[in-house]
Every structure is written in C-alpha cells, then in structure tokens.
Amino acid sequence: MKKMKVLSISVMCMLLVLLAACSSNSKDDTTSKEDTKQTETTATTTDTPADTKVTDEPEAVVADPVDLGGRTITLSAWWDLKPAGDTASSKALLDQKAAVEKKYNVKIEYLNVPYGDYQKQYTAGIIAGTPMADVSIVETKDALNSALTGQLYKLSEFTTSDSDINNAHKLMQKMKPIAGDEYMFNTPGNVGWGLMYNRAIFKELGLPDLQELYNNGEWNWDKFLEVAKLATKDTNNDGKIDRWGYAGWSSELGRHLAAANGAKIADDATGKEGLTDPKTIAALELINKMWNVDKVVKVKSGKKTEWSERDTFKDGDSAMWAGAEWMMGDTTLDFGIVPFPLGPNGTKEATFSENTGNGYVIPKGVKDPGIVYQIFEELYNIPPIEEYPSQDYLESKYKHQEDIDMVVNHIANTGMVELDEAYANFPYYTVMEEILNNNVSVTAAVEKHKQEAQAAMDALGKQ
User: What spans are recorded as compositionally biased (Low complexity) (predicted)?
Assistant: First the structure.
C-alpha cells in the first residue's frame, strides 16, 4: 500500500477525531464511560508518524525570529504530546523542537492532564483569565462554550498571510467553524466516520456491493433501507432472525443521517434549534422506520436507545453499522466502508456528524498569541514522512486498498460540526426516547420539545 499517492504530502499524522462516548439527558443514553471516551479521543492520534520513506520537503515557514527571553511555552492535552524519540519522525520532531527553542529563546513544555480532570482545569483557567496552557487541545463542544463567551482567539487574530495554515496547510489545517467563525486548528489528517459493512454477510446473502453503489451514484437513503431489508433474514428457518440489516446506537446514526441530509440538530452558527428542521425530521423518520416499522436493526440489549448498542456489530451477524477506524481494533471482521448515504437534501461536502471532535485553541489571556502560534506551527516543520496524511494509521486499520481510498477521497474532512451536547438540557436524547421507546410520532416529539431545545441554546448564549 505504500506506493499509493492519493493526496498531497504532509508532515504529521491523522486528524484527531472526535469521537468520544456521548453523554445524555436520558436514562439509557447516560451510559457513556470516561475510559471509553479517553480511548476514542486518543486512538486516532499519535505524537509522530511511524517511519516511512521520506519524500519532498515542505515549504519552509517564513518567520522572523523573536527573542522571548527564556519564556516557557506550554502545550496541553490529556495524553503526552511530547515526541517519544523512538522513530525517525519523532527524533526529527525533537530536533526541530530544540531548533525552535534556540531560535526564539523559549522552552517548550508539555502538560499531560488526565482526561477526568482536564476539562475542569481548562474551564477554570479560561474563566480566571489564566489559561492552563498557551496552546490546548479541547473538545469542540468545550471550545464552543469558550468561543461564545469571547474567551478564545479567532484564527484571524493570531495567524498571518505567511502562516502555513493560510497557504499550503501542510503543517496545520483549519478545523470547521464554530459559533460562526474559525477558532480551532490541527495537524492534517484523513479519518472520519462512515457506514461500515460486513463483507462476509454481503457475500453470503448476495447483497449489492456498497462501494459500487456509491461509485455509481446510487447510494442514498432508499438504497440503504433496501439493503438493510434484504439483509434481515432467518437463514436457518428456525423462525428467528439471525442476520440483521443494521446494528448500532440509534442516537448516533440519527446525527449522521441528519448531517448527511444537510441538517444541524443544533445550529451553533445561528443559535437556533434544528430539531424542527424538515431535514432533521426526515432523518428521524428514517430512524423510526428502521427500528420500529421495518425492524431491520438488531437490538441486543433490548433498549432501542441504549448507548452500548454501538458495539453490537461485533457479534458478526449484522450487515451494516456506523463506524470509525478506532472502533475496529479488536475485531477480526472483514469490513468495508462507504460514506453515509446522502439524504434528499444532502451534499458530499457533509457526510457525517462531528459531535465530539477536538483540536487546538489559543485562549484569551495568552500573551503574544501570534508568536505562540508561529512557534507551534514551526514545531512541525520537518521533512514529510508519509505519502499522505494518516497513511500509516489507515494502513494499520484497513485490509483493503479500496477502503483506504474511500476514506481519503470521500470521507475525510467531510464532517459537519454537530454540537447539541454542548447545550445543557438540549432534548435530543429525550426526543429519541419518545420516538423509539414511547412510539410518539417524529413530528409530535420534536414539536413537544422544540421550546426546550431553543431555551437550552439561548441559555448558553451567542457572542
């Protein structure tokens, strides 16, 4: 797989995903575990790429050195950001760190705070005006809170026309806007959520190849439901379904389908609730049809809104599920991936929901944010190691070249920021409970809770 050159060369590994176990307002959906959350946010991250063939060098960052008089620049995360020095790339990063420290007369320190304490320390520092670090990794929902209250610098306030992030973005790339502006940044990467499928079941049942459907422009909601119905079977004629069309956490798929239909359940840019958006309603109608009407979903726990259902696909008897690379580490399934099917109002620019991603921010209270960012960007100005961002990571997760191509060319960087969880008491999970467990119609459920949803967003406020 090393011979492929799908995207431009980069210096760093994969984009942090966002992908943490979700909290909830309902009984079933509050099952998220802190340990799982920490695993998800770090599983797609590494401080350095693995050793691979070095290719063309990146363009140098043009920056005049500034003597900062021995100042300490602190970088924080809930894992160790410091390069380990055990690979060629991490050694190069350590050498670059030393060169940057000398150039600017600074000391770079890495603050590693356990996940359970991290958000508290970050928030306390933000409120006090004394940030825990000059540059911090934060979850997007926490960044939204800080952005809405004016406690974060915008990218436009600390980057320049010469910054790599505003040009080739080989070293850094902008993350999607929050609160209507750009605040977050990260190293380039190619990861993301998609609709995964069990190749063995597709072969056993003679189901149409999903990647072929996608490439032919036929992969939409109707075809998705059609395949799910075809895959739900009693294969041994004992009167019990033993093959299922889909398995997974209903709330998770609901978000992805809404995004793939161009809908935001909570629009952080406008401050308006999106539960009553017809595009969201259409996504929830499909969820209801899958779980309650056509009954093509395996519900292992007996609870249709149970968070732990996201792992039910590992039983090996479900054809499709919502997935990301980090979920597949302990399974031997031969799986493939395609983007989530687009809804009638969807576009290929947004194919999945990013509700718990994370990235770097520079909080207000940090002195000389422009110089701090300049130093941070230069830390990663080393010869490129991979032929494209996340190459080694993806090749370690996928068995088939066509799956890697699908991620790189059609899934990566197509996430829609979806931050309903950032708003305390936002009733998304309650609506899901009403629809799936209480058999309330979708329109009645969203109408019942729309004022509650808007109140939750108004309470957080908009800058």
Answer: 39-52
